[in-house]
């Protein structure tokens, strides 16, 4: 699905929220690789499960025509600095739910971009008829967990020793969900 672009001014920066286009594919591929190396809050090490520009072109096209999928980018001065993707489930038994993730280049953490991406995903989900939206968060990322809780997410479960970080230690993953009563 495609939504209209928005210009946002917050915390001293102006940025654009929009859906990606085919011409963004190479930049998104590079950004995803970069962000994977900036934080251990995401699932991948740099270069793992690499998405090429061609992969992104396909995702952008498929998401633009899908009824229950939304892909948004955050752009500062014509440079994509973050994105979120919410994907609905195509299986009949799970058509009421969607899963999402957010990633932002660390130089733009603290500007409220993640919060705005989240708000727009939730607004879209609520108007699209998605009754459950979920995500997974490394338990050590307390700031993200608290943000999601402020927006109505609850902790549904804990995956014990779910991941190993560069420090050699195991970390738990929190499964979170937000429900719309129907």
Automatic annotation (TrEMBL):
PROSITE patterns linked to this entry: GNAT (PS51186)
Domain N-acetyltransferase: residue ranges: 15-181
Keyword annotations: Transferase
Domain of life the protein comes from: Bacteria
Molecular function via GO: acyltransferase activity, transferring groups other than amino-acyl groups
InterPro entries: Acyl_CoA_acyltransferase (IPR016181), GNAT_dom (IPR000182)
Protein name according to UniProt: Acetyltransferase YpeA
Native source organism of the sequence: Clostridium homopropionicum DSM 5847
Lineage: Bacteria, Bacillati, Bacillota, Clostridia, Eubacteriales
Gene (name only): ypeA_2
């Amino acid at each position: 699905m495609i939504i209209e672009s928005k210009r946002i001014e917050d915390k001293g920066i102006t940025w654009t929220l929009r859906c990606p286009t085919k011409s963004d594919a190479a930049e998104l591929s590079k950004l995803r690789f970069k962000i994977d190396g900036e934080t251990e809050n995401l699932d991948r090490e740099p270069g793992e499960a690499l998405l090429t520009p061609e992969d992104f072109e396909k995702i952008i096209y498929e998401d633009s025509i899908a009824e229950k999928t939304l892909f948004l980018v955050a752009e500062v001065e014509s440079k994509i600095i973050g994105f979120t993707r919410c994907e609905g489930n195509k299986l009949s038994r799970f058509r009421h739910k969607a899963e999402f993730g957010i990633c932002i280049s660390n130089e733009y953490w603290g500007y409220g971009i993640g919060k705005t991406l989240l708000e727009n995903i939730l607004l879209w989900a609520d108007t699209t008829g998605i009754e459950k939206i979920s995500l997974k968060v490394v338990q050590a990322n307390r700031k993200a967990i608290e943000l999601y809780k402020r927006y109505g997410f609850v902790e549904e479960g804990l995956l014990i020793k779910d991941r190993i970080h560069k420090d050699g230690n195991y970390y738990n993953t929190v499964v979170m969900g937000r429900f719309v009563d129907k």
